[in-house]
Amino acid sequence: MSSAHAPASNPFKQPKAVWAVAFACVISFMGIGLVDPILPALSTQLHATPSQVSLLFTSYLVVTAVAMLITGFVSSRIGAKRTLIAGLILIVVFAALAGLSDGIGGIVGFRAGWGLGNALFIATSLAVIVASSSGGFAGAIILYETALGIGIAVGPLLGGELGSISWRGPFFGVSVLMAIALVATVVLVQPTPRPRRTVTLLDPIKALRHRGLLAMGLTALCYNWGFFTVLGYAPFPMGLDEHHLGYVFTCWGVLVAIFSIFAAPRLQARFGIARTLYVNLALFSVDILVIAAFTESRPILIGAVITTGIFIGVNNTITTQAVMTIAPVERPVASASYGFIRFIGGGLAPFAAGKLAEHTNVHVPFYVGAVSVLIGIAVLAGAHNLLSEAEQAQARLAREKDTEESRQQTLTEDLGPA
């Protein structure tokens, strides 16, 4: 094995502050899949079309995307911890308000406020975990993606169980859990040093002048179009109740978590960033094509939807590491720029899927999603050389960490017992 493909170190030896933020990340990411099991119920009980209900994703993710542009501006002025707390407070408040709402318009609006809090939290939490982690850069990313996978896995299960009682239940559930995460963050997370240079509102946009960051962001936009087409629209043709939809998307989320934690680092170590992503995206596109062709066959549809968790888990971990390595700007700025582009794709896809199905048929949205992922491969190929540079940079970081750990161990042995 070459040094350029060095495996990540153990990401699970972390201080309490990192675990507090990771727990909050789990709850935050639960908000993505939480509403999946209740989408058909919302459509029926609130007399809304699938495209109207899908606006729960659109308002949440589009606001998250746009708000990403201000996260660095805010955190560089009030500090990372205060930004985390502000984001968590907004999520607690707007999740509760969504649960209290009586119409689809109110829920969509409060999900937008939820998205603002989500942006402040997500962009800052990644930077805090990377800065505070004792498991190295790659380990911090794996821990972050693990939180994403667990949150996505648990979200549908909780949404299905609470949604079977009332569609309001999932919203109140997130509000309570986020309040717990808020307390943990206040108590356990120490204020981090403010950056020497404050971030301006234009910095995330200017960062997209870098070809590698722009290419990775556009690839993520295309990939997320396919991802959120499946996540946001597949529950409708399945024809399942809240419980069973929760079980389906929990199985899917478990695969996201497993392949984020275990498979992605091993695949990257063996095949490198570029080859792993090309093959993974191609297989993901094929899986969505299966969903498109067999949308009316419930067993095949369910199996194919669950299988997408494999490709999502691999892609999330490897692309996040690559973006944070490839960008020539501060990591919070890189995270904001990347998040802005990728969440735009995720936000628009479910609404577009509903509209396409209403004007054509149930298969077309998934065919469009599959083609979108293929376009992402073409975009990624335009930054092939930069992916190699990211791989070398990750290997250099791993060597520096190993050297520092070896030096510390030698120093400890030389000093001997106290």
From TrEMBL:
Span of domain Major facilitator superfamily (MFS) profile: 17-388
Stretches with biased composition (Basic and acidic residues): 398-407
Cross-referenced Gene3D superfamilies: MFS general substrate transporter like domains
Membrane-topology annotation of the record: Multi-pass membrane protein
Disordered: annotated segments: 398-418
InterPro entries: MFS (IPR011701), MFS_dom (IPR020846), MFS_trans_sf (IPR036259), Tet-R_TetA/multi-R_MdtG-like (IPR001958), YfmO-like (IPR053200)
Alphabetical UniProt keywords: Membrane, Transmembrane, Transmembrane helix
Subcellular location: Cell membrane
Membrane-spanning intervals of the chain: 17-35, 55-76, 83-100, 112-130, 137-159, 171-191, 212-233, 245-264, 276-294, 300-324, 336-354, 366-387
Protein name: MFS transporter
Organism (species): Sphaerimonospora cavernae
